[in-house]
Amino acid sequence: MLHLDRVLEEVGKHSRRIQQNRKVMMRELEMAIEFIETSEEKFSDTGRTGIGSTRDAMSYLNGKTVCGVDGSQIEPSRENLVPLGGVQAVAINIEHGTGRWNRDVRFRITEWNEDVSLERFRLECSLAEDSMDGKRWVFFDGSLVLSFAGELKTSLRDAYITSMKNMLERSKDTGTPLVGVVDRSRARDAVYILSEISGFQFSHLVDSTIYSRILSDGEFSNPFPCRREVMGSYGGVGVYFMYLNSGGEIIRIEFPEWMVEMADKIAGVVYSECLLGKTRRYPYILERAHFHAVIRDREKLEFYRIVGGYLPGAKFSGKVGR
After folding, report:
1. How far is CA 51 from CA 179, 268, 273, 284, in A?
2. What is the end-to-end Cα distance of the chain in Å, rounded?
3. What pLDDT, in 10s, does the model give residues 61-85?
4. Sign of the dihedral defined by the CA atoms of residues 163, 168, 172, 174, in that order
5. pTM reported for the whole predicted model
6. Are 120 and 108 in contact (CB under 8 A)?
7. Structural domain boundaries of the chain?
8. Please, which pLDDT band fits residue 322 given cuts at 50, 70 and 90?
9. I need a labelling partner for 303 at 20 to 30 A (CA). Which of 1, 11, 224, 262 fits?
10. C-beta separation of 120 from 106 below 8 A
């Protein structure tokens, strides 16, 4: 429960600093927009999908098969004396125009000494790879650029990056379009590029803030190569990114380098999926994948009961670890 009286009290204490920070942000934003509008760089290049309605979206997707991959996990429970966890990955395939769809579900038990998040990631990547046949578009729920891996110990970092590299290479080898979608992105790749070419350090902006002022509904940015430090561990496998206004929400789209000439098609497929979604701002195929992949608290408790039946001494508190 959020106690609004305490929130208002704290906001009041920091109101002057909040206002000052906002002024700095707005000043930087205006400077960035002015530079973009007067510069000959690619920032001012935008495209438009030309898709304006759900009917347009259905027409654009007609004949295309899309696949959404997502996953979930269960941590081992000390409370219930269950030293095992589990990971689940789900791929939802939809043939637009026919109404046919199917679901591929993978689940595996994890040992107490395994990294559950890593095993979930591996399972998701493996399932995405198995879905790549050159005939469908594969949507991955999350980023293809694993910046967080740089903060991990070497063995974990290498394991994450190997799984991602394998998925990216499989996409290229089979000619299967792969898109990673991130909503509410806090990425600053475009900001860093803008700082380089303008000579001014935009320290208070994120990419989505800038593109919220540049892109109208259904418009998308020029694609740029990702140059983050972690890309040096990808063995020459490149990733590009672009931004799309999906009805007021700026979403980040990432894809393998081999797809860079497909920017118009990428934006068209992603935006069409967004128009079919519940919120009309996030791809429908990923909404469905998440619905089928998420493991709810009551289901985690049932997992502990099932596994605990094979473990002498296990007990059940009726609680699920947070």
Report:
1. 19, 7, 11, 16
2. 16
3. 999 999 999 999 999 987 767 889 9
4. positive
5. 0.91
6. no
7. 44-308
8. very low
9. 1
10. no
DSSP-derived 3-state class of residue 91: strand
Under DSSP, is residue 144 helix (H, G, I), strand (E, B) or coil? coil
H helix runs in 73-188, sequence order: 116-130, 154-174
Q: Please provide the DSSP assignment of 169-202 as one string.
A: HHHHHHT--EEEEESS----HHHHHHHHHHS---
DSSP conformational letter for 151: G
Tell me the C-alpha distance between 112 and 193, whole Å.
Answer: 43
What fold, for 44-308? archaeoglobus fulgidus dsm 4304 fold (3.30.2170)
The percentage of residues in the chain with a pLDDT greater than 70, rounded to a whole number, is 96
Question: Which tokens hold the place of 233?
Answer: 């561990």
pLDDT for 320 beyond 60: no
**For 275-293, what is each residue's pLDDT tens digit?**
999 888 899 999 999 999 9
| CA-based nearest residue to 170, from 205, 125, 118 | 125
Token look-up 């709810």 returns 296
- Residue type at 317? S
Q: Which two tokens stand for residue 107?
A: 């689940």
Token reading at 206: 């994120």
